[in-house]
Amino acid sequence: GGGGGEDPAGKPSCLTWSYKFNTLIWAILIVVTSVLLKKVGQLLRLWVMGSCLPGPGLQALVARSVIRAKADGPLKLLELFSSLHKQHGSVLKIWMGPTQLLVSIFDVRIVNELLEKAHDRVPAPRMALQLAFGKGSLFFAPFSKVEGRRTIYDREFNGKNLGQVHAIALKVIQKLGLWATLDQDGNWHTDSKSFSQSIAFAVLGISIFGEGYVEWAAAREFEKLLISIADEISGWVRYTVPPVWRPSFIHFWRKCNRLKHLTWNLVAEAHKNLQTAVCPIDNTKDNMVRSDDATPETQSEGVTLNGKDNYKVEVFEIVETLKSNLVTGKILGDGRVSGMMYHGGCTTAGILSGILTRLAHHPDIQAKVYAEIKEVCGSNLAPSQSDVKQLHYLMASLHESARLLPTAPFLQRCSLQSDFQLAPGLIVPAGAIMAAPVHLLHLNPVCWGNDSADFNPERFLKPKSEFCLNVKANSSHIHNELDQTQKDTNMSEKRVFQAPPLDSGFLLFGTGARSCIGANFALTEILSLVAALVQGYELKLAPGSPKDLTPKLENCVLQYSPSARLILIPRRTQI
Ligand code: HEM
């Protein structure tokens, strides 16, 4: 609209300007309206398709009970999901809000299919993990963006780093004075949760930043910040942070900034150490065994728990670790390293703390673990990496402990672009969250029997003949690498560890294209740590330590809370 014409000189008049302005406004309006219409269309689709799925309707406000149950702890959440599934069947929809649909699946076959076929997770809200760990955060990016990086990390964590983790774990355990307090009787006192956190961060920190990591003061602040950020991000299925309008948001934002600076400091320190560590190796090159010849087994052989180790050349090991550590190898960028430390540290700590607590609570089972260690590697020499592969009973105990206390109560997937066919006739609209209730699946009596709530490592042990038959059906983590050779004929009567088959619903590390790439690394680490600890010390509950094993979601992983207080009593056979 609007009137006017050209001026006598033929220059554009204000009419032309207003015409252009109007066109721009219309263009903007059309774009905004079409975006809004698309959103409304998506929402209507979500409502219509969501209403076809089994479960309570949008008006039922089940979300409130879910949020309340979540606040009351994982056991309440378990109860709620269990009763909802009983009521509505194995596939259940829950409206978490008018625009957020959660579909929980309590059917092992459908869960496995989901994890195999759906490769995306619901992206983290802009302000959540991105703020803390940068845009590169692997965990919540769509699969297309992380596929390449997954391959690289997989190669690193399951290659060189996996070869070194056993030796690093033994080194860390030797520095017990850093993680526990010595009393007058020569016993060590510690708290299971903080002990496990410090150790898990130390092992991962050395693998990523290099040998010096445990000595750096900045590393301790870094770990504390990671844990405190993990506490603030309330995570299960979907991660959230304090909303921007709350004062706590500014606090959170400051912490994230500090974390970034500390990460840069640690990376710089790792680079500096690499430079200084390289010098001695050049000077003494001729006197040393070549790194390529030193297998992890030969490096760790002969380490004793009393601190005297006979590694061939100390400096070699330092440089070897540094050379291949992920930061100096420029494989993990600064932004991603904190995300990896956060996930790897908190999860490993949760599982480690779980098994230590269980062993202290079940002296009979600890005695069997100790007997096995003594049988395989004696009392004085620390277990070598190949020894650890023969600790079937310990492996079974670790899996049993993690079955009862997995790190994540839920795994989530979503299909970002298109609808997802869950099962014949069950279509989940694009953008809805699909969740596998791991904690519930791990306690499912149909798969684990009526004693599914009991701690019984035997359920992961099978006669060797059965193992051979079933091995192909099992998932592909470290489990199947357990050494099946026998040291003597007596061992043939022994039962061997059998990895939980896929149809058992055991999902500690997830499965499919987004499964955990650190599974082998974490399992080797935890086995080595527990083997070395139990070989050297008897784990006991301190007087007054909580008797109940109540799981809670702390630092974003399931943990027994309050945490057990442990006493580590040196075994008499130890010199
Ligand atoms: C006992 C310790 C650990 C547990 C229980 C654990 C568990 C998990 C779980 C449940 C997932 C999600 C799987 C899925 O959605 O299917 C995951 C993903 C992942 N984990 Fe772990 N993890 C542990 C240790 C580690 C360590 C030590 C590292 C690295 C060094 C690591 C690296 C990763 C990565 C990179 C992913 C994300 C993969 C992706 O999004 O594509 N994890 N982990």
TrEMBL record:
<dbReference type="InterPro" id="IPR001128">
    <property type="entry name" value="Cyt_P450"/>
</dbReference>
<protein>
    <recommendedName>
        <fullName>Cytochrome P450</fullName>
    </recommendedName>
</protein>
<keyword id="KW-0503">Monooxygenase</keyword>
<dbReference type="InterPro" id="IPR050121">
    <property type="entry name" value="Cytochrome_P450_monoxygenase"/>
</dbReference>
<keyword id="KW-0408">Iron</keyword>
<dbReference type="InterPro" id="IPR002401">
    <property type="entry name" value="Cyt_P450_E_grp-I"/>
</dbReference>
<dbReference type="Pfam" id="PF00067">
    <property type="entry name" value="p450"/>
</dbReference>
<keyword id="KW-0349">Heme</keyword>
<comment type="similarity">
    <text>Belongs to the cytochrome P450 family.</text>
</comment>
<dbReference type="InterPro" id="IPR017972">
    <property type="entry name" value="Cyt_P450_CS"/>
</dbReference>
<dbReference type="InterPro" id="IPR036396">
    <property type="entry name" value="Cyt_P450_sf"/>
</dbReference>
<keyword id="KW-0479">Metal-binding</keyword>
<keyword id="KW-0560">Oxidoreductase</keyword>
<keyword id="KW-0732">Signal</keyword>
